Amino acid sequence: MNSYSKAGMATICATATLFTGVSFAAQTDKPGFHPSLSAYYISDNNIYRQATSKISDDILTVSPELLLIKASGKHRFTAKYNGNYASYSSNTSENYTDHFVSLDGLFDFSRKFKANLQVNLDQDHESRGSAGFDPATPTEKQNTWSENRLLGGFTFGRRSAKAQFEMDVTSADRDYTNNAQDARDRKSNGLSARVFYNTGPKSSVFIEAKQNTIDYINPAARNLDSKEEYMHLGFRWDIANKTTGTLKFGSFSKKFDSAAETDGTGSSYEASILWKPKTYSHVTLTLLQAPQESTTTDSYYTSSLMSVDWKHNLSSKLAFDLNLSSGTDDYSGTRKDTLTNASVGLSYKIRRSFELGLNLSSKTRDSSLDSADFDDGVYMLTAKWIKQ
After folding, report:
1. pLDDT at 53
2. How many structural domains are present in the chain?
3. Residues 199, 109, 82, 145: what is their CA dihedral angle, to the nearest 10 degrees?
4. Which end of the chain is more exposed for a tag (fewer CB within 10 A), N or C?
């Protein structure tokens, strides 16, 4: 499939590298059971992401992962669990427990027809400093939510043929579970289709049409039900196995059921480009822009992101990572946030199955709403075990 996710636009600037490792070995796709366990000791000097009266704390996070891969002929089935258990040293009301469960089936019916089906259960939280919130009036606890997602799609046509057709469908049901957030509960359904035309052995041009409908379950004083439509022109390529990527750009429209809300249009784009100048050095460029659901008086906001990540193996055991990202959240003239993030990390592989790391990061938000400004510095020690 060649589907794209809207999740994590400019907010990624604040958190993209916080819980990522440095090494860039690909996750295994071999059939079998593949458990791993990561532990993080984090020192954060502004846990509430506030402009003033900063509060610091130390956080211990444990993240187990269980991955089961089964093959049946050309078909492949995957079951996955990720947990994230965080404990704050002093501010224990910030403690959180996240769970993610995924069941995925990849079906290879023939050389011309392939399909996939995925079911996800996600129990997560919104980090302090998330887009749309005013840190000057923080909630007692971080917002938590639960979401069920169903994703499916198919591809018709061989990759080597002149043309291919893809279609994806998505359905999600999100429920907020604390802090009287019931008015934000919503269901969304999406449909997208793409037509590819090969311009070379490893290059294609494509057009994409996409539609999302968003229905709020418990609307309070406002009805934010809406329909989003996208049209994109895109390219994908693989040049000598050194530069691979997908780029699409176009426009979006967002129309609300209620006349009291403000409809909008704008440009949208997504890109993921990987450059491998050496086998031990990878550079990834990510670009994103799309509308997002708002928690402010604005009907919606437009979020954008540009991120560059450089991963470099200094030796067979020592790896280096540098990430720079910048983005904006534009609230249609009422507020505009500029977010920047810089992080640098080192990891050392003591054994094939055990790795230690150190990560330093700095995050800032410069907002036209003064109380939404913040800067935050984090250092993190990591340990990771992977079953070999």
Report:
1. 87
2. 1
3. 80
4. C
